[in-house]
C-alpha cells in the first residue's frame, strides 16, 4: 500500500493563541458581548493562550484488615469457653507487643449448644496500617496456634483521607502541567505568560489496579503484593485553562 493511500489522522491542537479583534474593545468598564467567556465583564480580554493538560497518579492502599476465626466444642460449657479465651488472650497479646492499638482490634463471640455439647466461636478483626507488622503477627499466630485458628487473606483498602489526598494531588499536578505547557507555548513565540483567567477541571477519573495473572486464579491464591496491586487506586485529571499573554520582557539598559 502506498503512503498516499493511508488515512490521515486528524491534527491535535493543544494550545490556541487569541487576540481581541480590532475595534472589539468598548468604552472603559463596558462589557464586550461574545468575548468574555464567563470572565469578569469589567475587563475586556486581550491576548490569550488556551491550553489543556492532564496528570495521572496512583495511591497504594494504606490499611489492611485481617480476620482470625477460632472455636471449640466441649462437653462442658466452661471447657469450651476456657479453650477459646486462652487463644483470644494470646492473639491480643501478640498484636499489642507489635504495636497494634486496642481500638484497631475487634472481637466478637458466639456461644451455643450443639446436640450434647457446648460450642463457642470467636472472630478477631485486626486493622493494620503497617503491612510488615501484619505479616509478622499472622506468621506468629500460624506458628504458635497452627490449625486451631483460621486466618483469612488480608483485605487491603483506602481510608477516606487517602482518597481525598490523591484527588487533590492529581488535580494540582494537572494544573501544574497545564501551566508549564502554556509557558512553553509563550516562550516559543518570544512572549511571557501572564496571570490565569480561567482554570477548569474538565474530567476526573478513578479506577482500581489490575493484576497480571491468569483469569482462572482464585483470589485466595494471590500473593500479598498482588493484593496490594489489585487494591491500588489510580486517578487522572484533565484541566483546561486560559492565561494572559504578556509582551516581550524588556531588558534593563546598561548605564
TrEMBL record:
The subcellular localization recorded is: Cytoplasm; Nucleus
Q: Which UniProt keywords apply?
A: Cytoplasm, Nucleus
The lineage's top-level taxon is Eukaryota
Name the InterPro entries for this protein: IRAK1BP1, SIMPL/DUF541
- Gene Ontology molecular function, alphabetical: signaling adaptor activity
Report any Pfam family annotated for this entry.
Answer: SIMPL
Entry keyword Cytoplasm:
yes
One GO process term, biological-process aspect: positive regulation of canonical NF-kappaB signal transduction
Q: Name one GO cellular component term.
A: cytoplasm
Main localization of the protein?
A: cytoplasm
Q: Does the keyword Nucleus apply?
A: yes
> Which family is annotated?
Belongs to the IRAK1BP1 family.
Full protein name? Interleukin 1 receptor associated kinase 1 binding protein 1
Q: Please name the gene that encodes this protein.
A: IRAK1BP1
Amino acid at each position: 500500500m502506498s503512503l498516499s493511500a493511508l488515512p490521515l489522522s486528524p491534527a491535535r491542537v493543544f494550545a490556541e493563541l487569541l487576540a481581541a479583534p480590532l475595534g472589539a474593545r468598548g468604552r472603559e468598564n463596558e462589557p464586550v458581548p461574545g468575548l468574555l467567556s464567563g470572565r469578569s465583564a469589567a475587563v475586556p480580554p486581550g491576548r490569550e493562550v488556551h491550553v489543556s493538560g492532564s496528570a495521572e497518579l496512583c495511591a497504594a492502599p494504606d490499611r489492611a484488615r485481617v480476620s482470625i476465626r477460632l472455636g471449640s466444642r466441649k462437653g462442658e460449657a466452661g471447657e469450651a469457653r476456657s479453650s477459646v479465651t486462652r487463644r483470644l488472650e494470646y492473639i491480643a497479646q501478640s498484636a499489642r507487643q507489635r504495636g497494634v492499638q486496642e481500638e484497631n482490634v475487634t472481637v466478637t463471640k458466639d456461644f451455643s449448644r450443639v446436640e450434647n455439647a457446648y460450642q463457642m466461636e470467636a472472630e478477631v478483626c485486626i486493622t493494620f496500617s503497617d503491612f510488615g507488622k501484619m505479616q509478622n503477627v499472622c506468621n506468629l499466630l500460624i506458628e504458635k496456634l497452627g490449625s486451631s485458628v483460621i486466618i483469612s487473606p488480608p483485605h487491603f483498602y483506602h481510608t477516606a483521607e487517602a482518597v481525598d489526598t490523591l484527588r487533590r494531588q492529581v488535580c494540582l499536578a494537572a494544573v501544574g502541567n497545564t501551566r508549564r505547557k502554556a509557558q512553553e507555548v509563550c516562550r516559543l513565540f518570544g512572549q511571557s505568560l501572564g496571570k490565569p483567567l480561567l482554570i477548569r477541571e474538565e474530567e476526573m477519573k478513578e479506577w482500581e489496579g489490575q493484576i497480571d495473572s491468569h483469569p482462572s486464579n482464585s483470589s485466595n491464591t494471590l500473593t500479598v503484593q498482588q493484593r496490594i496491586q489489585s487494591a491500588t487506586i489510580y486517578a487522572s485529571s484533565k484541566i483546561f485553562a486560559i492565561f494572559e499573554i504578556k509582551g516581550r520582557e524588556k531588558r534593563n539598559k546598561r548605564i
